[in-house]
Amino acid sequence: MDFKKEFFKYFQYWPWIMVSLIVCVGAAFYFIKTVSPTYQTTALINIDKKQEENAKINTFSKEDFEKKEVDLNDEIILVTSNDFLSKVVNSLKLNINYFEKGYMQNTSINDVPFVINTTVSNDSLPQTTYDIKVVEEGFLISSPSIEKSYLIHGHSTSRTFAGLPFTIQLTPKAKQNLSFYVNKEYVVSLEPTVSAIKNLKSALSVDTFDSQNTNLLLTHEGTNPERSRKILDQLIVLLDKNIVSNKQKLFNNTVSYLNKRISVFSKEKDSIESVKEKYLQNNDILVLDKYIVDKTNEKNTKRESAMLNERQIALTRFAINDIRRTSSTSALGTGYNLEAPTVNQLLLNYNTSILESELILQRAQKNNPTYLNLLVQLKMQKQAILNTLEGYLNFLNQNNTANRSEQSVANSEAKSIPTKDRVLGNIDNSLDLKEVTYLALLQKREEAVLNGAVLESNLKTLNSSQTNYSAIFPQPKSFMVGAFMFGLLFPLGIIYLNLQLDTKIHNEDDIQKLYSHIPFLGIVPKVDDKEKLDNTATSRSMIAEATRTLFSNISYLLPKKKEEKGSVLLFCSSIQGEGKSFCAFHNAVTISNLNKKVLLIGADLRNPQLHEYFNLEKSDFGLSNFLSNKSGDWKEFLIKDTNFSENMDTLFSGEIPPNPTQLLTNANFELLIEEAKKLYDFIIIDSAPVQMVSDTLNFSHLADVTVFVTRYDFTDKNTLVQVNNFIKKGQLKNVGIVINGVSKKSAYGYNYGSNYSYQYQEKTIKKPWFKRSLSS
């Protein structure tokens, strides 16, 4: 990249850049001087929310609360709410703003010599301003919005005036030194509460300050630092009162709730105790543990008694059967282990009688009456024993039936012990829970009462409101630097955008970047009418020097010829107005002044322009007349004008024909060129635009060099695409490009005003502007 070229590409627009810098920097300077600086005021407070939990009924443990994340979102929402801010607005009268009138700006002040008392509600205040001037008679009040003035007589009046929403009077301090305030002007701004709240909310920010989320940073931005500090202090005071008020409400609600719950739990506890009492009564339970022991023992006793009774039944049945099998003369057994003393005594008496019978039998015979009488008695005794045993057996069976029934009852009662234990356990658990909750509620109520007795806020002011007197807006240094950068970059951006969107041809680079294989022949500067014809052999004008350079470059494109014939130079362009006729004419003059025989042919039969340089009419005879008349001689139509050069002949286009394409494609035109080559060193053809008509392409093969003329800041770069297509197809051969109409002063890459002035001015030599200023 050629940095120098890029620099001068933008530097040529330095006046606009300078104007932009002056405007932006001047506007920034004026803005800084006229706008009141905005300062930032901050205050830091701490809110320990853990203290609030003492007055609450917590359903989680202390460890759970310590793990719980604490945030101050509720407090932030409260402080920024409209209701809360409305209290600040009303308490500080933020609806009314006081300013001291100045030449460039009004300065916000707090100490004013008068007091404003509104006569309407703050919500109904109008959004307006009043200019107030203290005069000897009283106050002169004017309203710019309604263009009306009021003169209030007296400095201590409290009268109301129609159209004024306030009353005004001097402060005691101002009354003592009235002359100091006379003729001083002030501005009072009024606004309704809604607007004041909106302005306050936009200037206020509340954010957490640390990672623990226990500190709040209050920030207020305003032009009046003292007013900002008052606002933050009032916010802290109101927030502190709100916290205490919320705690008081929480305390009252907590105690009321605890009293209600204590009453409910007391009733529930009594109800459970009544249920337990009825259950014990219905189940004949005094003490559950003793009841369990008694029922267990009773069950065991009944079981043992039943077992003993069944054993006696078995023994009794054995005894009855044994006695029945025993003969009447044999002794009965006494080891039946019967728990019947009567039976045992009868058995002893029977055995005793047996012994007596045996003694009698030893002394007497079996027929002894005593013996026989004793046998009868033995029989009767045996029967009595059997009857007694039968009766005892019946008694045992009855006892067995009763024992089974009692045992069943005892077993049932024993089996019901776990159920009754569970029921009583549930009742006891419910009762214990109620008692524990009841005691907890009593304890919580006592704690709440104690906390309510020493109720205090958990808000602490860590840093009181402080103002940073380094203005946050506007910051002069950064503001001026920003204005300078904007003033510099804005025009450069526009210039850059304009250059990027610019599709016009300006210099050689625009051509070489796209098609480097197409030779660049040079440039033709833009000249006024007076300089247009100054192209004599000794001329040192710009156009003369430029066309000499152009011819020199064209010479390198001319092919070497074996025969001594003239060269054909074809001048063409893409569209009309690019200056091909101008370039063809001046190049013809330049070449002829180099002692070369030149024929200039106007081959643009549709829109001829060459006649203007000779002050002739378009209708004069010329090429079209020759081509349409095969018997004529083209030399008869030549114009020789020695005003430009004695070596140059001109064949104008002639009358505009209806069929220019047909005329240029007939053999007469090619015959003319061949004949002219023998008579002239150079034949220069001014042709029609190739993009508009095909006339030029029909005879372009006759040219030795094709000079394609483009116009500075006029010809589109897309034209080069078409030129390249013509070259590829062979429709144009040996093409070179010329840029015509280059400005003397502003074309980047070609600064003729400074580079060529020393050559073309014979008497004066131009100097750069900075040297001229130094010399003057």
TrEMBL record:
Task: Kindly give the PANTHER family that the UniProt entry links to this protein.
Answer: FERRIC ENTEROBACTIN TRANSPORT PROTEIN FEPE (PTHR32309:SF13), TYROSINE-PROTEIN KINASE (PTHR32309)
Any one GO molecular function term? non-membrane spanning protein tyrosine kinase activity
The source organism is Flavobacterium zubiriense
List the Gene3D superfamilies hit by this protein, alphabetically.
P-loop containing nucleotide triphosphate hydrolases (3.40.50.300)
Q: What is its main location?
A: membrane
Q: Which residues cross the membrane?
A: 12-32, 479-499
Keywords assigned by UniProt, alphabetized: ATP-binding, Cell membrane, Membrane, Nucleotide-binding, Transferase, Transmembrane, Transmembrane helix
Presence of the UniProt keyword Transmembrane helix in the record = yes
The Polysaccharide chain length determinant N-terminal domain covers which part of the protein? 14-92
Catalytic EC class: transferase
Localisation? Cell membrane
Tree of life domain: Bacteria
Organism lineage reads as: Bacteria, Pseudomonadati, Bacteroidota, Flavobacteriia, Flavobacteriales
Q: Which InterPro entries match?
A: Bact_polysacc_biosynth/exp, LPS_length_determ_N, P-loop_NTPase, Wzc-like_C
Q: What is its EC number?
A: 2.7.10.2
| Protein's recorded name | Polysaccharide biosynthesis tyrosine autokinase
Topology within the bilayer: Multi-pass membrane protein
